[in-house]
C-alpha cells in the first residue's frame, strides 16, 4: 500500500472510532436495599467502599459523594452525585475506572 493510502486509512479508522456511540449502558444508579456483604470489595477509604458483582458496580457511602465511571478508553459512563447509602450501577462486561473523591480504582465487570 502506498503512504498516501495508509494515511487515509488511518484517518478513517480514527474518525470511525471517535464517532462510534458508546455501548448501551444501563439507565443509571439505583438504590440497593439488599445485603451486599458477599460482594468482592475492590477499594475503600473512610467514607466510601467500592464493590463489584456480576454486571454491577456497587458503592457504599457514609455521606453523599460525587462519582465518575469511565471506560478503559476514557469515555464517561456516569458522572453523578450519589446519596449516602448503597447504590449500584449496571454495567456491560468490561474494564472500568471508578473515581470517588480521592479514591480511584480499576474494576472488571
Please describe the structure with a list of short key phrases separated by commas or semicolons.
109 residues, alpha+beta, 5-stranded antiparallel β-sheet, globular
Summarize this entry quickly.
By secondary structure, this protein is an alpha+beta fold. The protein is built from one helix and nine strands, in the order H-E-E-E-E-E-E-E-E-E. Strand 5 and strand 6 (about 75-80) form a beta hairpin.
Overview of the structural elements:
The termini are far apart. This protein has one helix and nine strands. It has a five-stranded antiparallel β-sheet with strand order 1-7-4-3-2, with no helix packed on it. It has a four-stranded antiparallel β-sheet with strand order 6-5-8-9, with no helix packed on it. The longest helix has 17 residues, at 3-19. By secondary structure, the chain is an alpha+beta fold. A hairpin with a 2-residue loop joins β3 (48-53) and β4.
Low-confidence runs of at least 5 consecutive residues? 5-26
Number of strand elements = 9
Overall radius of gyration: 18 Å
Identify the strand order in the major beta sheet. Answer: 1-7-4-3-2
Order of helix and strand elements from N to C terminus: HEEEEEEEEE
Strand content: over 45%
The first-to-last residue Cα distance is 40 Å
- Multimerization status: single chain
Number of helices: 1
The helix content, as a percent range, equals 10-25%
Averaging pLDDT over every residue, what do you get?
82
Q: What does the main sheet amount to?
A: 5 strands, antiparallel
